């Protein structure tokens, strides 16, 4: 039985027309609560590492750009909460492929913890030398998040980054957007902020140059 709590057809139509969509209460309350518990447990076990920018040999920790810590879900894939999340996200991938023909083949994702004061400066999610990342996913785990706590994702809607929306990181909200099209940033969080961030990837994404 699907754990999705929204109309997939509407989401696909919105992605087709706008390239992004925000879905409150996207997954069941049980999945959201269990993921939050799992995230906090592995955080307390010290399994996270400081997030880096770039990829492969070009990876580096640049605290002036981002200051969160992450744990890739494939490292804790046996956790029931992670398995349930992955199953729900696979349902989305199959539907998006049917509706938009994006050729998505997998989801890579990680828990992200932003300690108090952490942020992520404006960036695109697609690497310059690899265009496999196609559709970005952000799923929030923060219960009763106060607006004054910051931590919103700011999604820029135009090429000049003049028009934007701020999305509150409230538990159960799912954000989807095309990875190569939308600049975005995470505003400084004034309390601990939890999410699952990921990218649906297509096969053979290495660019020819």
From TrEMBL:
<keyword id="KW-0408">Iron</keyword>
<dbReference type="InterPro" id="IPR005123">
    <property type="entry name" value="Oxoglu/Fe-dep_dioxygenase_dom"/>
</dbReference>
<feature type="domain" description="Fe2OG dioxygenase">
    <location>
        <begin position="103"/>
        <end position="202"/>
    </location>
</feature>
<keyword id="KW-0479">Metal-binding</keyword>
<keyword id="KW-0223">Dioxygenase</keyword>
<protein>
    <submittedName>
        <fullName>2OG-Fe(II) oxygenase</fullName>
    </submittedName>
</protein>
<dbReference type="InterPro" id="IPR044862">
    <property type="entry name" value="Pro_4_hyd_alph_FE2OG_OXY"/>
</dbReference>
<dbReference type="InterPro" id="IPR006620">
    <property type="entry name" value="Pro_4_hyd_alph"/>
</dbReference>
<keyword id="KW-0560">Oxidoreductase</keyword>
<keyword id="KW-0847">Vitamin C</keyword>
<dbReference type="InterPro" id="IPR051559">
    <property type="entry name" value="HIF_prolyl_hydroxylases"/>
</dbReference>
<dbReference type="Pfam" id="PF13640">
    <property type="entry name" value="2OG-FeII_Oxy_3"/>
</dbReference>
């Amino acid at each position: 039985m699907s754990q999705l709590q929204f109309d997939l057809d509407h989401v696909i139509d919105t992605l087709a027309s706008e390239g992004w969509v925000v879905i409150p209460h996207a997954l069941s309350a049980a999945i959201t609560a269990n993921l939050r518990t799992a995230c906090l447990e592995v955080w307390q076990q010290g399994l996270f590492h400081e997030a880096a920018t770039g990829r492969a040999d070009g990876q580096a920790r640049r605290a002036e750009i981002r200051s969160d810590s992450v744990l890739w879900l494939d490292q804790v894939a046996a956790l029931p909460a992670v398995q349930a999340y992955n199953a729900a996200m696979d349902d989305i991938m199959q539907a998006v492929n049917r509706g938009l023909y994006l050729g998505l083949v997998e989801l890579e994702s990680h828990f992200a913890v932003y300690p108090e004061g952490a942020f992520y400066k404006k960036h695109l999610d697609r690497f310059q030398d690899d265009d496999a990342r196609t559709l970005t996913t952000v799923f929030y785990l923060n219960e009763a998040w106060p607006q004054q706590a910051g931590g919103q994702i700011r999604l820029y809607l135009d090429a000049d980054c003049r028009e934007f929306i701020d999305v509150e990181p409230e538990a159960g909200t799912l954000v989807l957007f095309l990875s190569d099209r939308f600049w975005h940033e995470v505003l400084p969080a004034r309390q601990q902020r939890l999410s699952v961030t990921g990218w649906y990837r297509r096969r053979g994404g290495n660019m020819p140059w």
